[in-house]
Amino acid sequence: MTAPLRAFGSRQIQNPFEGRLDTRKRRRFKEQTRALPKAPGVYFFHGHNDRLLYIGKAKCLRERVRSYFSDTSLPRPNKIKRLLVEIERMDFRCVGSELEALLLERRLIAQLQPLLNRQHKRFEVYPYLLLSDEEFPRLTLTRAEPVAGEKDDETRAILREMSEGMKRDDAPLETPRAGEVAGLYLGPFTTPKHAYWALDSVVKLFPLRSCGDDFRFDPNGNGCFYREIGRCCGPCIGQTSREDYARMCADLVRLLETGEAPQIEALKAKMLRLAEQWRFEDAAQVKNDLAAIEAVAARLRRLARMRRDNNAVIAQPSLPDPDGAPQTALFLVRGGAVRKHLVVRSADERAWNTAKNTLRQTFEEPWDERQFTAKTELDEMMILDRWLRSHGDENCVAWMSDGHRESRQWASNAIRRLRSA
User: Mapping DSSP to helix (H, G, I), strand (E, B) and coil, where does residue 285 land?
Assistant: First the structure.
């Protein structure tokens, strides 16, 4: 039977952005790209009423922006189709290097909240796993401080899903802000989904208690529902002693920090035993649990490595000063993030001496290992880690770890290396 609206010639649109971009608009923007410089920078696309649609970075502004308006028969993502339909104006900002463009893009997205960008602005909550400081610690979920910025529809949906998930049990998970409850914080995780995945995977292997603050020891009791299904080791009824419970917590911390624990070996042996019994579906489930736990441990080990090892000074070209003299940008990275950003004249000896004193002050003062990482700082740490892994052997990078600062002249040697780069 013909649909009622089809009978009158109507057609349901499957994709609101299907079809071709207006040829005149594409031609107009393609002409404008010819005036863009062949330099690294950040570009901005604005829509109706000058609403900011998208922020991007480029190693070569002209080539990158022109690629949006090129004639191509290749399929484009829906986000790009929507961008090309709604764009009314574009702008750009030049910088001295690709690294500066990466960092500037991240900061501008967090500050301006463009409509079609997803990275660096999606979540206002970065969750942690919290191992509470109690006689019988609990493993729960906690959240970091929210960041300022407009919430888009996707962020609202994620936060709503997160709040509903935290209330899925009769005893909801504890979700204070990071630092409000004493204990060991493991994380942060980039999304609430990853945090729940980590919590669910770890609890299967380490059945710590999840009940509330009113912990009562009752040796004659029957325990709770979680003990019946193997999600709790039953310390409230004496099923697990205080020493065994503390050993289980220590194994959990060691697993998440090093990837090794006796429970992992037992789980591998169980997987092999199930496979030998031809119980392949059960063995596959155990294999998936092992992969999930390893992914969680690898994520936390990477964050610890970035905090511990990514200490360096990076020299990159900067834009010339108003007189046209060349300048150099110095990024002082400590604990994985940029702590100081200096711009010095390349030929000014006094400016380099000032930079040397700043470098010495930044890396000689005691460093307090931060337990909580802000969302914006974590995004920056990930960007710098990828960049350092690709360019860490170049002369423009002077590493500042303890082994590189044994000489008395370590600051002078670093400045000399950076100036020659």
Answer: helix
Q: What is the tens place of the pLDDT at every residue in 376-404?
A: 778 888 899 999 999 989 989 999 876 66
Q: What secondary structure letter does DSSP report for 331?
A: E
Angle at 250 between CA 249 and CA 252, to 5 degrees: 65
Sign of CA dihedral 48, 52, 53, 55: positive
Whether the CB-CB separation of 398 and 417 falls below 8 Å is answered with yes
Q: Residue 169: what pLDDT?
A: 39
Give Cα 143 distance to the centre of its chain.
Answer: 15
Helix (H) or strand (E) segment spanning residue 165:
helix 153-166
Cβ atoms of 292 and 197 closer than 8 Å: yes
Tokens 């007189």 belong to: 323
| CA–CA gap between residue 23 and residue 228 (Å, rounded) | 67
CB 98 within 8 A of CB 59: yes
- pTM of the predicted protein model: 0.75
Contact 313, 330 (CB under 8 A): yes
Q: How far apart are CA 265 and CA 71, in angstroms?
A: 56
